[in-house]
Amino acid sequence: MTSKNTSLISRFPYLRQDFAASLVVFLVALPLCVGVAVAAGVPAELGMITGIVGGLVTGLMRGSSLQVSGPAAGLTVLVFEAVKEFGLPALGVIVLATGLLQMTMGLLKLGRYFRAISVSVVEGMLAGIGLVLIAGQLYPALAAKAPDSGPAKIVGLPGAFWDAFGDGTAVASLAVCGGTIAVLLLWKHVPAKVRTLPGPLAAVGLATVAAFALDLPVATVKVQGLLGAVQPPPLSAFGELASVGLLGTVVAFTLIASAESLFSAAAVDRLHTGPRTAYDKELLAQGAGNTVCGVLGALPMTAVIVRSAANVQAGARTKASRVLHGVWLLLFAALLPNVLAYIPIPALAGILIHSGAKLVPVRALAGLWREHRGEALILSVTALSIVAVSMFEGVLIGLALAVVKTAWEASHIKLEVIDKGAGPVDAYLTGNATFLRLPKILDSLESLPQDRPVRLDLSGLHHLDHACRTALENWAERHSAAGTEPVKVTTVKVTAAQAV
């Protein structure tokens, strides 16, 4: 071994493992980058650009050493809606603003606070995305045009399937999509040596060969070249930032991309024993990547658990693997762009339908319903709200429901009444007295004997809000007006309460 090779190994001791892992991640990322872009209604190359930036920019930065970033199925629906409403030139502005906002949050060390977001809301968000993604991708699988809204996509599916019968193009397209999904589902059962080829690439590759060999009448990806796809946002597009709707979209991109990336980082940390994620630095890295993607007019990026898990399972040890995967994407897009033109669109639809199904936690929801029905309700309402309304409003509804549930559970109150049959009635309130439990408190107090003196002990309360204090004052006045002794109140430990 030469001294040059020895020096290289000493600087990069895990180069062999990272090189092998980078090839696996590249093969997993390639069909997903293209599929997400096509599903979002933008040129396929824009997905490739985001994957390249995820490797070469975000991949070089600190944060989570083994998670891989790129275009994610979780943002497909939001990107599609944004492009439809504001146009493709404005996409770069939205992604650029998202990146700058993420970088600002990272510098302010706000990354750790994303861990405080209810897991049920995040899972509900992903489930809602999955449902809309599945419904939307069934249309290209049937060689049909998808309606714009989520509810319309779901309502229109029976008619789309009915129209497909007897239509040779639709049947061929559906067969390619179904075959792609079948390969993905059955790939884990093939011999281990064959499984060295990632399932998504194998599925798309087989679908491409079948469509070409059988001369099937199916739509394929349109290609315009990597440089031709780069569309920096024009200065006129920045005027859209004055629009409330566009600013809302930026906030939605930021929250969803950041939450998905940081939750993915937590999941990846459980897969390996290496350095843990620095959440603020990872948020800064994601922001830098999205800023570059915005300047290039590409898709937004997040950390992607599918690619990240493949990276860990392939034996990656350092961030070199994800950087190299970006190099391979760049070389492919630069040297072999025309290969993309042979990929059938229904095969990519099959990839995304399979990905969307993974986002819907059917089994986990059943277990959650048995153990934590409140969390299961939040998950379900968030998902259905996203389908029925939109991504941003659905997430807000989920967050509001989570806050209400937490407030309700935090306001536990207990009233213990000791009545010896004669003399004063002793009532002890313990817990947290908030307006949410006010009806229960008043019902219990008003049921006390009107012709007996009452001693109300509030010293066991941890919290007494203004609404409850006022209500207790009014109740005490009413009870005392009945001709009995004034209500005596003990409020030793409650600073917020006063004698009533």
Automatic annotation (TrEMBL):
Domain SLC26A/SulP transporter as annotated: residue spans: 15-382
Keywords: Membrane, Transmembrane, Transmembrane helix
Compartments it resides in: Membrane
Membrane-topology annotation of the record: Multi-pass membrane protein
Regions that span the bilayer: 20-39, 86-108, 120-139, 168-187, 199-221, 241-263, 327-357, 377-404
Signal peptide interval: none
GO annotation, cellular component aspect: membrane
Highest taxon, organism lineage: Bacteria
One of the GO BP terms on file: transmembrane transport
Coiled coil: none
Protein's name in the database: Sulfate transporter
Organism for this UniProt entry: Streptomyces alanosinicus
The encoding gene: ychM
